[in-house]
Amino acid sequence: MCGILERKRKETSASTANHYLALIRAILRRAHKWGWLDSVPSFEPYPVKSERLRWLTQEEAARLLQELPQHLADMAEFSLLTGLRQSNVTGLEWAQVDMQRRCAWIHPDQAKARKPIPVSLNDQAIQVLRRQLGKHHRVVFTYKGQPVTQTNTKAWRKALKRAGIEDFTWHGLRHTWASWHVQAGTPLLVLQQMGGWASLDMVQRYAHLSADHVAQYAANVGVNGTKKTQAPLRLVSGTSQHIENMVGCEGIEPTTR
């Protein structure tokens, strides 16, 4: 058992290894309940470092899109507009897109939380999809007529270097999307639903990017006891117009496979 845990720790991050640990612990508890084990061994979770979220400014994102080859630029832009994970972008099929209703959806078996994700498509996202029409009968994003399976390529890394962007991965596009939403005022509960996160805890890491919920209280203290008042701060991102164009995706029922 310890060998399995150590192997998973070497193969994955500490956070992912802890997920495996939780699953093993649940199995052992059930085995103990059924009388198959005399006791449940204890396992210490692996320490998880508090990592700093890396997200792009509007200017950095624009530079990156300019430097990327067109097929990767389209995928990166779509990621910035929808927040979809890399696997959901590379695996997106036309059967999952409704251009007329301006919606797409991710099936439960494709989602990390194993729940369907409705995706609202704004004007820019629709434009990206229209550029892909006619390139492939099944998948949305292609390169030279073939589905794209990998984004962390030499072209991606060279584009980052030319754009002057360091310490950034493709998954950072999802962090960027979430950060822009929070700065534009999107409530965390709504963001959780849009991003398909299993719990609000995963979204709370973006909360510090918005001062709306604390600005009104920060004004309560002033010099010499003077109580000052001010309107709540609102951080407005350059993408606010994109978010305002979002169209609801209610009523979409993902097809079963």
From TrEMBL:
GO terms for molecular function: DNA binding. Residues 51-219 form the Tyr recombinase domain. Keywords: DNA integration, DNA recombination. InterPro entries: DNA_brk_join_enz, Integrase-like_cat_sf, Integrase_catalytic, Tyrosine_recombinase_XerCD. SUPFAM superfamilies: DNA breaking-rejoining enzymes (SSF56349). It comes from the Bacteria. PANTHER family: PHAGE INTEGRASE-RELATED, PROPHAGE INTEGRASE INTD-RELATED. This is Prophage integrase. It comes from Acidithiobacillus caldus (strain SM-1).
